[in-house]
Amino acid sequence: MCALSLSYGFTSFQHPFQMATIKQVFVLVGTVFISSTAVVLHDGPNNNLETQKAALMQRVQTKLSQMDQTDVSKATQMLDTSLFGKGSSASTTCSNSPLEPVLPGIKGGCTRPKLNFASDVDWPPYAYIGEPPDSDFEVAGIGHDIAMGLMSVCDIDVTTSQTSWSDCWSSGAIGAGLKDGHYHACMTYTHTAGQRPRYMEFTHAFLKDNKPAGILTRLDASGNPVVSPMSDLSGVNIVDVNGWAPTSDTLAMVTNPCTGNQFTGYNMLIPTGDGNDAAMEMLMNGTADAMWVYADQAHNYDCNAAGVTPTWDCTLWTGFGTNFAYIQTGLFGHALNGTTLGISKKGSGIADIVNPCLQAYMQTEEYHNVCVSHGLEGSCYPNQFFANADVATPTWETATNNLATTCADGYCSCSAR
Questions:
Q1: Which of 91, 170, 257, 364 could form a cystine bridge with 166, CB 3.0-4.6 A?
Q2: pTM for this structure?
């Protein structure tokens, strides 16, 4: 908590940064007025300081009750500004527990937390480059929108910036950028089992566990998969998407729904480069015959999607249903929770700051609207503003043994050969 310390000899006051109410502003402004040397309170045998302070506080509260929220906020900001750097008479200082971890080169928040969230921009609708008129080519996506929405329910400052996914998580370990404090947290990471929890802490999820894994393979000239959906992958070279979930260690945790058996005996390949393009290139050039990847990745990498500026190799991802297809979808066993707002270093305390705000925001109509605008209302946690209508389960969330599609649709059924 940040303390607004007022040392005029009468009192001191700690100003809580989260969910400030009008009552808290009354107390803040009233305490300043009572503590100010401009207000003369007489102490003596016939004068009771506590009575005088109580009477003055009542006058302040009466005055502030006639002000609207905007005016009260302005008054608070003016106090913050006027008290900053006043030395022993009045100073804005932080208590022993800083409001947020200090980042090099970033001015921190003293009266409220100031958090910097980062993401790459090649994963719509989660993270991408926005286009005019909705965005001036800034960081966009549901992660950005949820992060910025925290300011509507909490006394907190949030900024978002672009980074590379590899600076957040890469090669089975925390990325250099996140580890070295280039930003407080990276957005829209699935809370997977295995490697990630050993390195990082996670905020709560703002989306359900809606990110199933899948397995892609090439299709031959006849449209048949080069690896059968019935395969346990024994002897198969399968490439992981370096730096992304599902992580390479979690393939051993899921079961082939076509056979009921676990995958085993495969050769896991890790590209030297991070990201989906590097893995997809190895699949399509024959270095690997299968790819361990999000089950919705091919859908999300549609270069013709409206409002998105592709930052991935569209040539590689053209041919869904003709050159490549999924032989497994709907594999959920790799994750402990859904899509989180932020990952950060263990012990950073970012989750402690964010989670109360995120919980409050997820009860708002704005949360509902953001979910709808990104086409993810079926994956969001419903509140009172969500309709009760059932949302169809997407194909990629359906286990392969329950599919009625063919490889030509991009999603092979168990019977595909």
A1: 170
A2: 0.65
